[in-house]
Amino acid sequence: MTNQIHERIKANPKFQELCAKRSSFAWTLSAVMLIAYYAFVAVIAFFPASLGTPVSEGAITSVGIYVGLALIILSFVLTGIYVQKANGEFDALNKEILDEVK
Amino acid sequence: MKRFGTFSSVVAGLTTLGLSSAAFAAGAIDGAVQKQATNWTAIVMFVAFVLATLGITYWAASKTKSAKDFYAAGGGITGFQNGLAIAGDYMSAASFLGIAGLVFTAGFDGLIYSIGFLVGWPVILFLVAERLRNLGKYTFADVASYRLQQGPIRSLAASGTLVVVLLYLIAQMVGAGKLIQLLFGLDYGIAVGLVGVLMVGYVMFGGMLATTWVQIIKAVLLLSGATFMALMVMTHYGFSMEAMFKHATEVHSKGIKLMQPGGLVSDPVDAISLGLALMFGTAGLPHILMRFFTVSDAKEARKSVFYATGFIGYFYILTFIIGFGAIVLVLNHPEFMAADGKGIMGGSNMAAIHLAKAVGGDLFLGFISAVAFATILAVVSGLTLSGASAVSHDLYASVWRKGRASDADEIRVSKITTMVLGVLAIILGIAFEKQNIAFMVGLAFSIAASANFPVLFMSMFWKGLTTKGAFYGGFAGLISASVLVILGPTIWKDVMGHADALFPYKNPAIFSMTIAFAITYIVSKIDGSQTARDEMEAFEAQYIRSQTGLGAEGASDH
């Protein structure tokens, strides 16, 4: 019984579509986060001075403060983008797949 | 006027609360903290917190009947509530006092640490959260052993869990004892005993439901307190960051260097290794992973990470402002300076506490002290529940009784384990009072990243994983992370007093994670047994469930 359901889900092109779309979306966002963070770590390790430069002539606030805040905001925004799409589009597709085997 | 202990002793207390060893490894630790005058405002507020949480525990106990209620709050926590609870698990007293203190002494470097602690969350959401929710029941071992042999994999996962939980618990207990001595003027032994008794009470009687609500209340209190402090600081400067930074750089001995990366992460290998441990260690912390089973489905699991990331990110921005606020409102103000003129009373990790007094007077100081205590209690409760589940659900019910244990038996073993862990935590907390334990949380993160995470990740993503591969790879990660930390500067040099470390880096994750993944891969590849073929065969069914949630655990009816 379960095997039959599995076979039907596997054969459903919508299932293939769901897995392909969701996984490429998840990996793309992960790559954005990983690259952004490790680029930040690499800059700290190899070019620390660049983060210490003031944002504008005569200012105290350094570029690094904004980069740091941007990373925090980026983390939050990326999770928002993923949840929006996964809980909307992907879950709707998922529901169709499950309804078809009921 | 209360008097605080020496700088190093406070560093000792706080380093142990939850920050990676590297953050404050510079501080020498002598372990001696003087008992302080009793702080009644703080005690009254803390007693109010304890009474409220005991009330919740009483309510939760009446709703906690099945194993599912005990381990996973019946699966009935919403995404928003779970997001707050996850944030609560993550915002330890060290994140608050330690990072604020780090910003206070080093400015920008404090931000580097906050970011390292935050960036693991999006990755957990994208790659781990929904598969974990769809496949698991109570512990991450459910997922790792889904298509593999229960005995070896659950033993491995339980070992990883217990080592991480014990290291974390000792660190929290010792930190708690010292912090409470400083803030409340209670004896170290009484403080440790109190924390142990309360945490056993919450977990044993209220299970996951009580633990979750203790965590939520504490998260709300901590976020409100920190928001108030940051707002008070910003109103001083008409909400201009530039004006605040300008003033801070004028009064701080580091001057403009506060705005620049300092020496905190100077070695590239160590920096990247620390980044790996923070990022993937978070995805291997058993008490955090367990939270994903408290929500009804993958949809709510995703939402909880979204909210958690928001709360944690917001909290780190607040601690950054609080750190700078302390530079301008605490530093060089005579009432907060140490008697010997070297820095502020109690050391840099007390910066946020002093700032609480500077912006809100004695009443608010009492509030923040009580919140710091509540924070420790909430974190140790989550840890204890996670350790108890590893013993009762993974070792007892699945390995020993081969899945034939009744719900009642499983809960009973869980409660006994909770008691044992409580007693153990108190004994170890007292035994380690004067020990240098700054390495413990760093080691816990490294082990989580090198043993728990690789097995969990490979089991979900790689069809070719076999029981043998996971077992040897996981233990290789656990052992290599431990050995490299022992041979590294934090233990070999700082604790054992040898002149030079045998292993040059403080953070072993880049090596131990590689070892774990490589051994898992190689052993799985050369495993030609029939069992191995069956396990690969079973990946498909697991994959379908992990993607669609078909057959996943739902919420219970009540």
From TrEMBL, chain A:
Signal peptide: none annotated. The chain crosses the membrane at residues 24-47, 59-83. The keyword Transmembrane applies. This is Uncharacterized membrane protein, DUF485 family. One of its GO terms (cellular component) is plasma membrane. Coiled coil: none annotated. Keywords: Membrane, Transmembrane, Transmembrane helix.
